Amino acid sequence: MTSTVTFNHLSSRYVDTKPARAAGARRPRNPAPPAASAAAEPSMTVPTTVGRPGKRARSEGEVALGNREGDDMEGESEEGDEGEGESEEAEGAGDGGEGCGDGEESAVAMLARAVQMLTSEVKNLRLENQQLWSQMAVMQDRQIKLDRAMAALSRYSDVDIIVIIYNQHIIHSIIPYVNITLNLITNIIGNQQQLFMDERWRREWEQLHEPAFREFSPATTTVPSVAKLMLEDLRRDLPFLRQYALAHEFAVPGPGYPMVAGTMSSVFDNKPPVIVFVNQAMAQLTQYSWHELLGKPMSTIAVFNEAALPQLTPILTKKAPMSESTLHRFNHLFRTRSGRLLRIIDNTQFFFDHDGNVTLSLTHSSDDS
């Protein structure tokens, strides 16, 4: 037989007294409804079996205990989910760090390739520069030979040149048309004439050009203060000096002295010489940069005395072809960029072309203001 029994003492005994979760904690997925207090609900009516109240009470307590254990397990599972999320975030951060490392390695590799390409380009430019220097040296040697040949021909008139060419080539042109006897006689006469002409040329050449074309050596040079190494350096910096032996005393005692070189078309031309070379010392003296002076007239930095030009005419004309003059000492004014005038005492040397006229002037100056 089943009846309804009221257990007032069980209402307060099995009330859920689990403490509230901390702030920010997640709520359980299936929260249990809040338990009613004893004051609001003084009694609880439960179905039970008559005569077995204790067993029913124990079963209800076991149910409440099971609910509490289920809530605890759900909280632990949520904490596990949070830990897994944190581990995934850490793994993502690690992957990002590895990506940054790969980016740095690729940038270093690109920089290394760029440096290697630049190095190869510089090497190729050096090789091309050496080839250009060798080609220029060959062209300068050819120019020297042509200038010397023209200098030799300039000592003779047009009639003499025709006679020389005839004597050299007429015999060789008639040899195929004569017999053996005539060939022998002609060869003997031609050889004697050629020997006579060669000996005449050799004597005249030595008298005229021996000082200019004597090979440079410490025993034969007349330049006491200029070493051979310095002359070679000047030949490299001043290509037009390669055509001259520089056997006489040289205008420049050293590469550190102020130096300027100019070219002129004719001594009778009213135009001033054009600057073709200036070193750093001269640029500092005149307060110009060297690239500002190249191609400019010499009057940009020097004030010439035009009244002295007639006195210079015998010095600058009718000289030995492809030769250089002795040193000439001048005293004139140099003009700086700021307008200041410097009284300069300089040593100037002139260089002559294959016609014996001046074509270049090289000046070594010192500030004597």
UniProtKB/TrEMBL annotation:
Residues 71-92 have a biased composition (Acidic residues). CDD domains: PAS. InterPro entries: PAS, PAS-like_dom_sf. Residues 1-103 are annotated as: Disordered. Residues 1-11 have a biased composition (Polar residues). SUPFAM superfamilies: PYP-like sensor domain (PAS domain). This is PAS domain-containing protein. The lineage of its organism: Eukaryota, Amoebozoa, Discosea, Longamoebia, Centramoebida.
